[in-house]
Amino acid sequence: MENVTKRFGKVVANNAINLELHEGEILSLLGENGSGKTTLMNMLSGIYFPDEGQIYIHGEPVTIASPKDAFEHGIGMIHQHFKLVDLFTATENIILGLEGKLDIAEASKKVKEICDKYGFDIDPNQKIYDMSVSQKQTVEIVKVLYRGADILILDEPTAVLTPQETDKLFAIMRNMKADGKSLIIITHKLHEVLDVSDRVAVLRKGEYVGDVATKDADQQSLTDMMVGHTVSLNISRPEPKDVEKRLVIEGLTAYDELGVKRLDDVSFTINAGEVLGIAGVAGSGQRELLESIAGLYPVASGHVTFYPPDGGKEKELVGLDPMKIRKSGISMSFVPEDRLGMGLVGSMGMTGNMMLRSWRKGKGLFLNRKDPEALANRIWEELGVVTPSTSFPVRRMSGGNVQKVLVGREIAQSPAVLMTAYAVRGLDINTSYTIYNLLTEQKMRGVAVVYVGEDLDVLLELCDRIVVLCGGQVSGVVDARKTNKREVGALMTLVRGGNKDE
Amino acid sequence: MFDLASFLPRAVMQGIPLLYGSTGEILTEKSGNLNLGIPGVMYVGGICGVIGAFFYEQSTPAADMNAFLAIGIPMLCSLLGSLLMGLLYCLLTVTLRANQNVTGLALTTFGVGIGNFFGGSLIKLTDSEVPSIALSATSAYFSKSLNVGGWFGQVFLSYGFLAYLAIVIALFASYFLKHTRTGLHLRAVGESAATADAAGINVTKYKYLATCIGSMIAGLGGLYYVMDYACGVWSNNAFGDRGWLAIALVIFTIWRPNVSVLASILFGGFYILYIFIPTGTNLAIKELYKMLPYVVTLVVLIIVSLRKKREVQPPASLGLSYFREER
Predict the structure, then answer these.
(1) Which chain A residues have a beta carbon less than 8 Å from that of B206?
(2) pLDDT tens, A146-202?
(3) Does A337 map to a domain?
(4) What distance in Å separates the CA atoms of residue A14 and residue A343, rounded to the nearest whole number?
(5) A392, CA 20 to 30 Å: which among A68, A91, A471, B100?
């Protein structure tokens, strides 16, 4: 790939990137969230088309305009989200979209051959809905091999796997390498990079930082390449005042519906009057942590204790649902990462969305529209929301305005605890600063603010303390004024008690 | 005494329109389109056949009629009419992504309205005393059977060619869905359009084709009803609720056209059971018997839901429009 550039609107996702993949090697593509790894690979697999630059395969310039083109050039990508029909068998899924006469028995035989050759362990006639996540991933890989791909791209393949399954996958990847296939693995887990790949290419904020042979690299040097130098953002951060503990979290452990441990013995304190940052690579348990505190996620064990601001009796929150938490007088606001899914009703206007928080207060048969309307107008004016009217569906507003509506509504509840997840995701710089200022304002009012973010620069300048999560565990709590990017970056990829990652 | 030999042929003749309707609807639903406009499509299929036959009979004296044209013209008109209905449905739901339920119900109302409008106009043209048109000459061609005597002939060989065609189409549809690559792709579109799209299957093309072909098959059900079952007599609203029964049959057979062959006869039997069971003058009991097909469908739905087996569920993306950029 030579000088490949991709822009989405004004945002440059990949800027003049040169990347080389040799035959029979495993290349790791390393970078933080949003550094452009997946975008770059999507251009190779035909999902996006590069705005500039040229792709060469075996020295020949090629044009890849669709996934079909990519297949014809022997490029196959295994996405994070599987594209499989649940009701079909493995074989049926593998041959889906191919031409020619349908002969399931023959195709099954060929699938079996591929499985035996590389050491996959799936039954060609098993239905997808009966399969585990790792088996589904295997089907995706076999699907690509069945089409004769010799360049395989795996987008964070280990994110959904247990350590044992990961080891198995790596063994298979080495088998494929031995067979002369070239592989690219996208990941942000350093030990995997060191474990499986021959070469590492690092991206940062859409720029190509460089590549090193794996044998010359170690965790520290890779972290440095990944996070880069500190950038000053000049976010105003007044000293916290009247700091007192508001929420104490002890030994919180939670499992998802598949039985995978999402939170592992998490303990920390959320203080009033300061902004607590939560850092970690995507999927380290941030969402689960916030939802557990808000009473939306089932907690297996542990405690969340609330200390009321008026010095009243402390309350245990685990086991209460959101309604009960509110009824017992604990005002807690939650800005979820999925704004239109969990936070707002897209087809309702600002007023309607304000009412979602207040309808229960009304007495009698009819809803009180006046107060929500007034609140909507206030948010509209104070936060400068750009919308034709308070009844304009929020779905059709821009991302920044949606976020302002949501944050504005939550702040208007005058909560004791304000939790935000990826509050500035997808927002431009100015809107982001508006949100930062809002959060800081709340902090000065004595609210305990929790800020989950992905940009380390912002976390370091906005927050007072940072809790770093890694693989569902707390890998460190640092003072944001004294720490630096390198320290946090290292904690993000390291679980306490040794340097073996999850 | 319950006369099985005369009951069965009646049940079959009742069942054939339902079989056409359900086969067409199954094909449509396998592409993820829930076409509730099937009753309207069948109605249009019927009236278009009537229009074609009417003008051919008007232009040619009965003695000079050509068997090929007498069958070909109504059939072509019927197919064309229901194809237009299918295209309209696709245009609204696939291309413009309108809500499938609303579109379907609107098409049913629309189709019945069209049928009654043209039916009424034709009746006016004939100046007949009764509010119906009789196309007995055309009907004779459609209902021509081998006429073999005995109980065997009566039960198996006493129907017009459209009845056998219905069974052939149903069995072929079943084979097509299960054993061909195109069938596999069609099922993938109905289960998960995004997956099919990623695999390089043209989702829009499949949805259009399945829905239009399904509509044409369903329209033949309307044609059979007028030309064979009703002996060429069209009167407004006589088709009744057969279109809805066809949709009930889709659920009853759990989206399998081959099962539909027998199930349609069962439904047909339920539909006319009240005539064969002596109920005296008590009309209320007759009405209760008429409910049987619907009660059975409800029972099947309950049993299927209780079993929670993935294979017996409707296509997973049934009723959803697909828009590639909306991930």
Answers:
(1) none
(2) 888 888 999 888 777 777 788 888 988 898 888 888 898 987 777 778 888 888 888
(3) no
(4) 31
(5) B100
Are B32 and B193 in contact by the 8 Å Cβ rule? The answer is yes
Q: Provide the 8-state DSSP code for A416.
A: S
Cβ atoms within 10 Å of A403's Cβ, excluding its own: 28
| Residues of chain B neighbouring A86 (CB-CB closer than 8 A) | 191-192, 310, 316
Tens digits of residue pLDDT in A58-87: 878 888 887 778 888 888 888 877 888 888
With bands split at pLDDT 50, 70 and 90, how would you rate the model's confidence at A499? very low
| A102/B180 CB distance under 8 A | yes
d(CA A294, CA B167) in angstroms, rounded, equals 59
Residue A132 contacts residue A90 (beta carbons within 8 Å):
no
Q: Which of A68, A84, A96 sits opposite B184 (nearest CB)?
A: A96
ipTM: 0.82
Query: Is residue B110 situated within a structural domain?
Result: yes
* In chain B, residues 287-316 whose CB comes closer than 8 Å to chain A: 310-311, 316
Q: Residue A393 — pLDDT band, cuts 50, 70, 90?
A: confident
The range of the structural domain enclosing residue A108 comes to 2-227
**Per-residue H/E/C for A82-120:** CCCCCCCEHHHHHHCCCCCCCCHHHHHHHHHHHHHHHCC
Residues 6 or more apart whose Cβ sits within 8 Å of residue A365: none
Q: For residue A3, what is the enclosing H or E element?
A: strand A2-8
Domain-embedded: residue B325: no
> What percent of chain A is predicted at pLDDT more than 70?
88
SS3 A241: coil
A116 burial (CB, 10 Å; 0-12 / 13-18 / 19+) is exposed
**Rounded distance between C-alpha atoms, residue A320 and residue A1, angstroms:** 54
**Whether residue A238 is found in the same domain as residue A120:** no
A261: CB partners within 8 A, 6+ apart: A253, A254, A255, A472
Single out the residue in A355, A383, A413 at which a domain terminates: A413
Rounded distance, CA B190 to CA B315, Å?
6
Q: DSSP characters for B100-165? A: HHHHHHHHHHHHHHHHHHHHHHHHHHHT-SSS-EE-HHHHHHHT------HHHHHHHS-S-HHHHH
CATH of the domain at B16: 1.10.3470
- What is the C-alpha to C-alpha distance for residues B94 and A118, in angstroms, rounded to an integer? 42
| Token representation of residue A119 | 């050491």
Asked if A160 and A258 sit in the same domain, the reply is no
Q: Which residues of chain B have pLDDT under 50?
A: 327
Structure tokens at A182: 């070239």
Strand pairing category for B133-134 and B233-234: antiparallel
| Backbone conformation region of residue A16, classed left if phi is above 0, alpha if psi is from -120 to 50, else beta | left
What integer best gives the mean pLDDT of chain A?
79
Contacts of B33 (CB under 8 A, 6+ apart): B89, B90, B93, B94, B100, B207, B210, B211, B318
Does A68 contact chain B (CB < 8 Å)? Answer: yes
- Name the DSSP class of A388: S
Which pairing describes strands A60-62 and A52-57: parallel, antiparallel, or unpaired? antiparallel
In the prediction, which pLDDT does A341 show?
65
State the DSSP H helix or E strand holding residue A366, giving kind and residue range, or none if neither.
none
Give the pLDDT of residue A361: 63
Among A66, A82, A84, A87, the strongest candidate for a mutation testing the B interface, having the largest count of B CBs within 10 A, is A87
pLDDT digits (tens, 9 = 90+) for A186-220: 877 777 788 888 888 888 877 888 888 888 877 77
Query: pTM of this prediction?
Result: 0.75
Query: A269 and A124 in one domain?
Result: no
